[in-house]
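User: Fold both of these, please.

Assistant: Here is the first one.
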Amino acid sequence: MSLQFHEELAKLGPPLEGVAGNMDEAALKQALPKQRVVDVAGLRIGMLHDPGPRLRREARLAARFEDCAAVVYGHTHVPQIERFQHLWVLNPGSPTERRSAPTHSMIVLTIQGSRVTPELITL
């Protein structure tokens, strides 16, 4: 993604939070962190692009984001909605480049009180 497109999305609102991905242009990679944690309705949501190797991925993410209710990652383009220990591990897939995923997809994350409800939407 380009920095210009990211800035255009940010103008649409609500607040846009993101992390740098491997295919982003250099200016956007410099503007965004590789990892972040955001507060949404009192719950912490971790974000990163590349979660590392598939083997023990959920355990690594649970340790890395131990104070979060969920972590959202990308890179693989393969959707994942899985509860692991205290953490929702979420990959929305991709609405534009499905690569090895069966369909284009995204996740809608609903937060009510301390309850997180992820829903995979196929496009």
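And the second sequence with its predicted structure:
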Amino acid sequence: MECYDPAEAPNSSSWLAMSTEEKLLLVIGYFQQHNDVDFIGDAINVHSSIYVLIENQLAENTQMIPETLAALVQLNMSREAAIGAIGRIALEDMKGGIGFTSEQYNQKFQDLIFSQIQAG
């Protein structure tokens, strides 16, 4: 894989075959070239790491992640924005240090989809 674009799903087997460092470098490269936001300090690394995490979960077909992404995209959210929204839930889990149960994740994903329906 030569470049990353969050608008397009990477080939799952190619994505999973790469090291975390390779994935991170591709995602950072995308955000450095295509983002209007000026990242401060390590923010681009954190932001890109979340995208790597979610792309890994998509490639591995982790429960609720592909379905949530598909639902958000169907509701006219860009794939990039949908990955970011799902990533915020994962980040919330990491910050809490406790970990969400499957039921809590399911509810948070359902709430995310419902909020997008209301916004639309």
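The helical segments are 12-17, 20-34, 43-59, 65-74, 79-96, 102-119.
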